[in-house]
Amino acid sequence: MITEPVVRHDFRLVPAALTLWLGALLGMLGAWWLALACGVAAVLVSVVLLIRLRPGRSRWWTGAAALLVAGLLLAGPLGLRLSRAEHDPLRGLAQRGTEVTLHVLVTERPKPVRSAGYADQQAGPRSVVIAAEVLHAEHGAQPVVSSGRVALLAPFAPWSEVIPGQEITASGELAPPRDADLTVAAIYVRGPPAAATEAPWWQRAAESLREALRQACAVLPEEQAGLVPGLVVGDTSGLSERLDREFTDAGLTHLMAVSGSNVAIVCGAVLLLLRLLRAGPRLSAALSGLALAGFVVLAGAEPSVLRAGVMGGIALLALALGRERSVVPALAAATCVLVAWDPAMAVSFGFALSVIATAGLVLLAPRWAEALQRRRVPPGFAEGLAVPAAAFVVTAPVVAGMAGQLSLVSVAANVLAAPVVAPATVFGVLATVVATAWPAGGEMVVRLAGPEAGWLIVVARRASEVPGAVLAWPSGWWGGFLALVVAVAVVLALRRRRLRVLLALVLAGVLLVVLPGRVIAPGWPPPGWAVVACDVGQGDSLVLATGEPGRAVVVDAGPEPGPADRCLDRLGVERVPLVVLSHLHADHIGGLDSVFEGRSVGAIAVGPGRQPDWAWRQAGRIAARHGVPLLELDLGRRLEWPALDLEVLGPRYVPEGEDDDGTQINNGSVVLRAHTAAGGVLLTGDVELAAQADLVAAGTDLHAEILKVPHHGSRFSLPQFLAAVSARLALVSVGLGNRYGHPNRTTLDTLTADGALVARTDTDGDTAVIPDQTGPALVRRGK
């Protein structure tokens, strides 16, 4: 049996890299003098080592010399840079919320800040965050001497087209920075960019290439069209909030951030092509270097992209040239260079992920793959299992601290995703190049990336739906440290037979206790359910059973795609004869598209209101795309199914136009009385004081055993209206920790005083009403 020699890695530069990293980290999380102290300590230690070690006789003499250089950098230029940032004049002005005018150099592409839809505000990006360097600052007519970094929080529409390299003038109110890096202040910008200069030609070229890719992707289905640019160049501007969350839950977010893997795929494809063409090593190295530089420019040439280029490039070249021993010193040297160039790298989660993931793939993955092969696992499968497992173990502490959660399905999801990532990236890059000169050709090429993107969406969606897929975890540095302790404990346990057996017993016990309760016998949905208030966050979505298996009526669809769809899946609903939109506010129609996923829908019904205009157009587009009619529910209309009757009670009066606070739209909500197997249900949308008074004054019979509390339990509820309903059960559809103060304590006290049992989706999760011998009863699924 022939065994391959064990690769002995060279760790001599690692102490210098860790010292630079730790010193810069302490200097930014604490105070600049901590970096200075760390540098002085490193200098003293290195001097002692250099005296005791002799050059040429000890291989660690080089490492001690590198540590000396790292200490001098921390004690000198890096410490001075951190001190200047800590004492920048803009920091003091930011503490007072001062109005300033800044002339800045844009250093990174605008990052959209997505907001969930609510009331008449459509879901999506409403602002952008732009990193920039201050060239000149003024407070009133007085100049402010500053050369620090700032974060611009600006309106989306006028600022989303800004390109790195442009010099722009912006005015607004300063605020303290949120992140502990070299950013000295944030500025809330008002108005469009002023006095903008032209960006460098390479930045304009890169933006035109990215725009060509976005245009080519328009031929793909909507979700695929938003995903492909993210896979290729990290452009997630077209990615839906639902898909973003599903990729996070599945542990696949790294696929949409430009990383060393993107670089390795692009350069690897070039090297493979050159090898087929029998090109020499020098020509191959030169052309792959050009491909690397071109990809960095395409992705934006931002600090994060440069980091990925350095990390991915060194690992690729070292492994491709068969010099595995050079990977660790190259990684350490790259870490030193990057931190010295930009100390803010030290506090960047992306930087930590890049370094740690590269180290894990080099140090752990080959050993684990070899161990699997010794256990007769085929080589290809062994590597396919070892690589994502090693990446998950080493990056889990960083991800846990960053996101406050751990994805327990990450390894399996990455194994399933791995085969299609490389072809999707290669086809995407080819489509970008071709589409610039030949748009139709780019569209043909990008279609080849569509199936791969579709497979990734399926993997992310199904993985995120696994019960217990995401484990809540403490966020921040302490959470990351706790995850590190657990990861080390697990790895050490797997190295010893007795501990492996103990770990297996613990996992078996968890599966026997948790799995039956969460998967095998979840107790959901309860048999005979009649009404379910779905937990969709800060919005409404109720499901009414029709008495036919797998068939139900849906009233409202929540604020975003995903939650309503998952609620219907849990209920086993496959056919929806009618979707009723009580009114057209975003928190009621935002998830409409997802109701159609995997199920047939008969029609969409609305009330007489047509505001806001964007929501009315959106509902029409969705109805047309799925080929279903868009109906209007008139006052007095009755609809019947075997175990469900619906009667339209309101609105009694439809206000014209649109007001500023959305009250008129709320009062135009469709009010329904449903007769179900569990009793009468009053569905009220978001009706407020005026509409409630209209219903009471008209003498409408409002009595119902179950009340869907209006407007998420807001304070705008008439005690007379609630008394007229006299409900035994009150369902409040509301989001956890919402900023609107819903539900209002006075409203809840009034309901309780009237004898109602209150259930809230923010604390109880999905809530079902079932018939009981004594009347309707509640079953809470829980969070």
TrEMBL record:
InterPro entries listed in its UniProt record: ComA-like_MBL, ComEC_N, Competence_DNA_uptake, DUF4131, Metallo-B-lactamas, RibonucZ/Hydroxyglut_hydro
UniProt cross-references to CDD domains, sorted A to Z: ComA-like_MBL-fold (cd07731)
TM annotation in the entry: 20-53, 60-80, 252-274, 281-299, 305-322, 343-365, 385-403, 415-438, 476-494, 501-521
Broad class of the protein's primary localization: membrane
UniProt key word Glycoprotein: no
Keyword terms of this UniProt record: Cell membrane, Membrane, Transmembrane, Transmembrane helix
Subcellular localization: Cell membrane
Domain Metallo-beta-lactamase: 538-736
Highest taxon in the source lineage: Bacteria
Protein name in the entry: ComEC/Rec2 family competence protein
